[in-house]
């Protein structure tokens, strides 16, 4: 009888250890998957981004700007839609730039504000996907 009780106890302890190990393994795998989803790789960014080639336009104060962008979307469908809407995005960019003055581009805050406005305005056009980030890839103010 005492032998049966010891065997039952040993089986229960082994089952608890196996369950705890399985739970720990699942938790570690989920955390690794969540980290991978949080930061897209360079290849994923390139696959979901489109280029807006250099544009030259007048600013509100009579000066002009040459600027180009890279638009990062949230998915392949978002990229396809953005490619089809590139003329609308260029229109939004010109519209926003034409309201700005050279002083609006001073410092990091000015460029960050422009990128946020463009992101908001372009997302207003999008139906299938969303713009995640707007990057300025070249910038000349004269």
UniProtKB/TrEMBL annotation:
It is a single-pass membrane protein. The keyword Cell cycle does not apply. Signal peptide: none annotated. The keyword Cell membrane applies. It is found in: Cell membrane. GO terms for cellular component: bacterial-type flagellum basal body; plasma membrane. InterPro entries: FliL. Keywords: Cell membrane, Cell projection, Chemotaxis, Cilium, Flagellar rotation, Flagellum, Membrane, Transmembrane, Transmembrane helix. This is Flagellar protein FliL.
């Amino acid at each position: 009888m005492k032998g049966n009780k010891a065997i039952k106890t040993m089986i229960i302890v082994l089952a608890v250890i196996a369950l705890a190990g399985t739970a720990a393994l699942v938790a570690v795998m989920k955390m690794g998957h969540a980290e991978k989803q949080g930061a897209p790789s360079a290849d994923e960014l390139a696959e979901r981004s489109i280029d807006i080639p250099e544009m030259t336009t007048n600013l509100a104060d009579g000066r002009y700007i040459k600027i180009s962008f890279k638009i990062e979307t949230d998915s392949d469908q978002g990229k396809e839609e953005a490619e089809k809407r590139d003329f609308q995005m260029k229109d939004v960019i010109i519209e926003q730039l034409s309201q700005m003055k050279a002083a609006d581009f001073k410092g990091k805050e000015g460029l960050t504000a422009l990128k946020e406005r463009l992101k908001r305005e372009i997302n207003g056009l999008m139906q299938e996907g969303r713009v995640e980030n707007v990057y300025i890839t070249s910038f000349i103010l004269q």
